[in-house]
UniProtKB/TrEMBL annotation:
Domain of life: Eukaryota
Protein name according to UniProt: Uncharacterized protein
Entries under InterPro entries matching the protein: HMGI/Y_DNA-bd_CS (IPR000637), Znf-C4H2 (IPR018482)
Basic residues bias: start-end ranges: 175-188
GO biological process, one term: regulation of DNA-templated transcription
Major location (coarse): nucleus
Keyword terms: Coiled coil, Nucleus
PANTHER family associated with the record: ZINC FINGER C4H2 DOMAIN-CONTAINING PROTEIN
One GO cellular component, as annotated: nucleus
Polar residues composition bias: residue spans: 164-174
Region (Disordered): 131-202
PROSITE patterns in UniProt: HMGI_Y
Amino acid sequence: TAPPQVTPKPQPLVATGNWTTELVQLAKTAELKKHSLTLQLHTANIVAAHNTLEQKDKTIQDIKEQKNRLDSERARLLNALAEINADRDKVDLLEASITRECADLRQQIQTLQEGEYAIAKADVDRLRAELGQPPLPPLQTKLDEKTSQYLRDRRVNGEKRTVSDSQPDQPNTTKRPRGRPKGSKNRGGKAGGNAPSGSAST
C-alpha cells in the first residue's frame, strides 16, 4: 500500500514593518478628513453669514440715509407749518380787529341816524316844506347810489386791468408779418414805377 500523503500545515503570516503605526496613521487620516469636511461646512456657513451681514449693514446704512433725508424734510415742513400757523394767527387777529371796528362803525352810524341826523333832517325837511321845496331824499337812497357808483368803478377798473394784461400779447401779433418787407418794397417799387406815368398823364 502506498503511504498516506501528508498535507503541509499553512505557515502563519508574519507582519513585516511597523503595521501598528500605519493603522494609527490611517485612523488619524480618516479622522482628519472627517474634521476637515466639518470645518469646510462651518467655514461656508460663516462666509455666507458674513456676506448676509454685509448686505444687511449696507441696507441699514441706506435706511439711515433715507431716515436723515426724511428728518430734514420733516423739519423743513414743520418750520413751514409753524410759519403758516403764525401767519394764520396774525390774520385771525387782524380779522377780529377789523370785525370789531366794523361793529363800532355800524353802531356809530345807527346812533347818528336815529339821533342827530334824524333831528337835523326833520328840521331841514320842515324848513324846505315851508319854503315850498320838496324834502330831501332818504339817506338810504344816497347810500344806494354811492354803492352803485362804487360797483361801476370796480367794474371799469377790472376791465382796464383785463385790457392791460392782454396788451403784452399784441406786439407778438404785430411782429409776425416781419417777413413781408421785401414784398412790400417790391410792391412799392412797382407803384413807384407807375407813379411817373400817372403824373405824366395828368
